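pinned: reference chain
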Amino acid sequence: MATDTTQPQPQNDSIKHAVQLAGEYVLPGASNLIAGDIKTGGLHFLLGIAAGALLGPVGVLAVKANSYSRATTGQNVLDHFKTAPASK
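pinned: its structure tokens
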């Protein structure tokens, strides 16, 4: 009996997210590189270096958080904190 592989399984997504998070620990932009987005991953890598030079570890942490958020949800970190417009 063949299994249906067209639907992503939640466990596979969890493992993928864990690997992306571990990659961010090592290198800013790694989660985007793992997801296959070379341009965004490279940009986050360069931004991580610049943020580290200008702002120290806090800047690098901010870039890493943004990179992981972008790779897993498609949104920047700040987009998660924006409030939805009030419906009329």
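why pinned: DSSP finds five helices and no strands in the chain. The two ends are 52 Å apart (CA to CA).
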